[in-house]
Amino acid sequence: MAYIGRGLDRGNYLKLDDISSQFDGIKTTFNLTTGGQPFFPGSAFSLLVSISGVIQEPETAYQINSSELVFTGPPGLGEPFFAVAMSQPINIQTPSDGTISSSKIAAGAVTTAKIADGAVTPHKLSADAKGVGIQSGGVSIAGAGVTQLNFIGLGNTFAYNATTKTVDINIVGGGGGGGAIGGITTASGIGTEVLIGINTDPVGSGGSEGILQTRGSIAISEGALLTDQNINTDVFIPAGKNGLVIGTVTVGVGITIDIAPGSTLVVV
Description:
By secondary structure, the chain is mainly beta.
């Protein structure tokens, strides 16, 4: 028939070792064991004790003293006995390394905070667990919660080293590209709004260039503008622009300097 009554308490129910072989009709105190090891009940009410099929009343028919079962009156010689410890804590113990599969881990259980404080360490994860270590010049870069790297721009190359399981990344700068928006921006000085700026070919026209646009060699040292004395590539000064050549300049054979109508070239 179905179970009737208050629901059973949660926990582990443990049957204790049989002590009926010690019953002699005189002895009232017996050691409780489970698997041959001493067992310490929390109280008399945590045990279900039966002698000859009769359930004994806790604290009246028996009491508990540490790991001893003390009967009020001695059990008869050879009377059948059993005892069950109720609602014992379930000991899950520590799982062995590599024994927890991904399906046994609840979604969101492994958090960034737990990884950061060392609660979840790499050797506690299975061999299939994945992670990304980021380095710059061989030096590890700390960063929590990084799950994806997104490299923007053309010309980036990636090389995988199967021996070290390392991906070497070569990022090409954006100075010579052809996009509408890009370039290099730093806190200390170089910034363009388009990919035409330094060492670009061809030199732009209209309002396409940034603050500084060069093609070839030019330098500013201690307030002095330094330029080449030899022009070995064709020069075109677009409409609406003025050109400046400083000092004696040698123009290479077959090289042309083309000046758009309305523009000016000044040699000083």
